[in-house]
Specification:
Blueprint: E1 11-14, H1 24-51, H2 58-75, H3 78-84, E2 91-93, H4 94-127, H5 132-135, H6 138-163, E3 173-174, H7 181-184, H8 193-226, H9 231-258, H10 265-289, H11 292-305, H12 313-323
Parallel strand pairs: 1-3
Antiparallel strand pairs: 1-2
Helix pairs in contact: 1-2, 1-3, 1-10, 1-11, 2-4, 2-10, 4-6, 4-8, 4-9, 6-8, 8-9, 9-10
Amino acid sequence: MNEGNLSRVNEFVLLGLSSSQELQPFLFVIFSLLYTGILLGNILIILTVTSDSCLHTPMYFLLANLSFTDMCVASFATPKMIADFLVEHKTISFEACLAQIFFIHLFGGVEMMLLVSMAYDRYVAICKPLHYMTIMSRCVCIILVLMSWCVGFIHTTIQMSFAINLPFCGPNQVDSFFCDLPLVTKLACRDAYFVSLLVLTNSGFISMISFFLLVISYTVILITVRKRSSASMAKARSTLTAHITVVTLFFGPCIFTYIWPFNSYSVDKVLAVFYTIFTPILNPAIYTLRNKEVKAAMSKLKSQYLKPGQVSTVIKIILFLERK
């Protein structure tokens, strides 16, 4: 059939996380609380880092940028998913679907490169401590952040170029709570095997390269730390544990989604929830609850902006977790 005679799909139907109508109100409450926690937790980290001069160091500068990126990762699709729990027919326009694809790969690419930058920062701090402030200058930190956004933009532009001209004229059901290229390309009117291969290759390439860089850097750091036994090295081990946990939580689902040939979309949906919602909410907990400097700065921030006896909900939660 001539592609010019095919009608173009104007919207897609998102099948969401579950087809059970009884679960929708429960999921609405749960994910509303999780999304609120993501925003409040990451905003608290950004405010803490920017307001305390003791935290004006390269590591915390990169951490604040990671928190901002986490909010972006959680916000490109989660608000619509939460709203869709309240409606029976979950649709998204063709343009909004493309926008979701653009932003997930933009923010995902940025977060990967930020994690690599943070690993490089820890490598310099532990392996070359005498030259740390010279190597990790303010200018270098800004360049690392800008490079992260450039890599993310290039990555998502390449991804979009693969699929922007595909004809969509038939099936329009996306078995997920947001649009992603591996699912959307399967709905094209012509054979999209080659396009799907290019999409997976591009995503797999940036994921695996970033992951291998992180593995190499953390291996070198751990070898260096193992040879030392001072108190500062104990602190370094604690910081490294937090970083490695974040890397595992983020890259694990991404690698399985874009490299491992799963046939079950239900598995993909669980992994998508993990790296778009659970990782952004776990990052503040991992970085703050294991870091005495951040906790001290939060206490100072609390006493500075809140009257005696008034404690915000987020700080209450953090203090409760600390006691645990």
